[in-house]
Amino acid sequence: MSENLAVPCIVDGKTYRVEEGMYLADLSTSIRQRVKQDYPKAKVTDFICSHHLLKYRLASVDSMINSDLKQSQKINRKLTRAMQSDDYEITDVNETLTKSLTFGERVADNVARFGGSWGFIGVFVFVLIAWMAVNSLQLFGIHFDHYPFILLNLCLSCISAIQAPIIMMSQNRSADRDRMDAENDFHVNLKSEHELRILHAKLDHLSQNQIPHTLEIEKLQIEILSEIRSELAELRDRQ
Fold it and tell me: TM segments (predicted)?
């Protein structure tokens, strides 16, 4: 009995069978709101035929597609600007330090480099042994520094006194390099974090909006195709 019940359509006022449309209460919230925008006095108990309902379904599909497209384009523009942004100052540490080198700093680097090598240790040990051997054994008749080699101790003290500040100068340059590397790492991490935030926003948009909208659109498409097939079947029966 309910299938043969004739009810008026809220749009054109004509009567249709119940299976030829839907009540507003059975529609999705977005489609029902669209119908109420055109017919503010409509109630959830009102009826709309499939022919007029198709227009609202297509409008709802277009609205969801356009909304998702605009949001995706907005996020993509933000991501593109973030990737192309040159606001993050990345310094070429080697080039900067090389250009700022003075003669004294080059000498300090070379001295520190040689002073921390096995070559320096070998030369130093050879000089010590040769010095003590010459003065102890009086080789070649040379005996200018008697035991306990006070002159040797004085020379070693002078070398240490001079070598220490030179090595400290080189270490200061190493500290400058570390500081510039740390600043570069900070800027790189800052840019990466900004890009990751945008990517997370894009993934959130996909999971919270676009995927549910896609499923809803597919559902509407199936309903529309079912109605079209029903109308085609009715046309065949009438023929």
Answer: 114-134, 146-170
Burial class (CB in 10 A: 0-12, 13-18, 19+), 80: exposed
Amino acid letter at 158? C
Q: Where are the domains of the chain?
A: 1-66, 85-239
| pLDDT over threshold 60, residue 4 | no
pLDDT band at 1 (very low <50, low <70, confident <90, very high): very low
Quote the pLDDT of residue 126: 92
Q: Nearest to residue 46, comparing CAs of 88, 80, 18? A: 18
Is the pLDDT at 3 greater than 60? The verdict is: no
Contact 35, 27 (CB under 8 A): yes
- CB of 188 closer than 8 Å to CB of 88: yes
CB 106 within 8 A of CB 200: no
The C-alpha atoms of residue 145 and residue 218 are separated, in whole angstroms, by 100
Single out the residue of 90, 93, 89, 107 nearest to residue 178, CA to CA: 93
